[in-house]
TrEMBL record:
UniProt-recorded name of the protein: Putative signal transduction protein
Organism: Escherichia coli
GO molecular function, a single term: cyclic-guanylate-specific phosphodiesterase activity
InterPro entries, sorted: Cyclic-di-GMP_PDE-like (IPR050706), EAL_dom (IPR001633), EAL_sf (IPR035919)
Keywords attached to this entry: Hydrolase
Documented EC number(s): 3.1.4.-
Top-level taxon of the source organism: Bacteria
UniProt entry tagged with the keyword Thylakoid: no
Gene name linked to the record: yahA_1
Taxonomic path: Bacteria, Pseudomonadati, Pseudomonadota, Gammaproteobacteria, Enterobacterales
Record has Disulfide bond as a keyword: no
């Protein structure tokens, strides 16, 4: 990690989706959060599809959530135009 500038650590959706039902996946998420916390990195959980998953990740200290709970994938230009419209621009 020292050779590359790193700002974020992403948690793969397979761990996010299994963390509440599989003890090992839950421990892996905990360890990723701890690993990222020490150097002050932000943490992103991918593949969040349910409110239960979102609540669990927030409770574990994850900073950012992405997945179908919030939006399906969209092209960058569509995201920007929708964001500008929502911001009143």
């Amino acid at each position: 990690m020292q050779a590359f500038p790193v700002d974020f650590i992403k948690i793969d959706k397979s761990f996010v989706q299994m963390a509440s039902v599989d003890e090992i996946s839950g421990h892996i998420v905990d360890n990723i959060v701890e690993l990222a916390r020490k150097p002050g990195l932000s943490i992103v959980a991918e593949g969040v599809e349910t409110q239960e998953q979102a609540d669990l990740m927030i409770g574990k200290g994850v900073h950012f959530l992405q997945g179908y709970l919030y939006s399906p994938p969209v092209p960058g230009n569509k995201f920007i135009s929708e964001w500008v419209m929502k911001a009143g621009g």
